[in-house]
Design brief:
Length: 187
């Protein structure tokens, strides 16, 4: 989350927003397909048995943190140079997957198919894929300070409170949204 001082007006609390679904093969299988919804019921994170992780269109996050807005200038952890292959900052996808998983860690089923350790490992792997040079420093920072974030979220009412749904099969995020919309319209 971007911390804002009283000197920053009309700014959003996020830096990036997905304009389409993003899927990544984590190679980390889970026992059941999992859908994580935000407080408004929108599916934001999908984890499939085969290890595919999808963050859905419209998800907003703040990149690597911490960041502070001061007199409309964003100061904080850099997200890296723009990668020639993705045309996004080198930590863009790493921070996306990491932030989405951290947001929903408190909503994980009791058997914890994905842990904080897994989320941090995915963060490191995705930064390696974009050849982000200081990836080990960033990974060490989330290992040391990321636990504070998860602990605080467990003890404080979160604005992002959501829920998890276990499903037997998932077609695609778009098909899932269409099916949900049809079901709601029939009520």
């Amino acid at each position: 989350m971007i911390l804002t001082m009283n000197t920053c007006k009309n700014g959003v609390r996020w830096l990036y927003k997905l304009d389409q679904d993003f899927s990544w093969r984590s190679q980390h299988s889970v026992p059941e397909n999992l859908l994580f919804s935000d407080k408004d019921g929108k599916v934001r994170l999908i984890m499939e048995k085969d290890g595919r992780i999808t963050v859905t269109k419209g998800y907003a996050w703040d990149g690597c943190t911490p960041k502070i807005c001061f007199f409309d200038i964003l100061i904080g952890t850099p997200d890296g140079v723009v990668h020639s292959g993705t045309e996004k900052p080198k930590t863009y996808y790493a921070s996306l997957i990491h932030d989405a998983l951290y947001q929903f860690l408190p909503n994980m089923p009791k058997d914890k198919p994905v842990t904080r350790w897994d989320a941090d490992a995915f963060f490191l792997r995705l930064m390696k894929e974009t050849e982000f040079a200081p990836r080990w420093i960033y990974w060490l920072a989330v290992r040391v300070f990321g636990g504070l974030s998860v602990s605080v979220r467990k003890n404080v009412t979160r604005k992002t409170r959501g829920r998890v749904e276990i499903t037997s099969g998932i077609a695609s995020p778009k098909k899932k949204r269409v099916a949900r919309a049809k079901a709601k319209s029939q009520l």
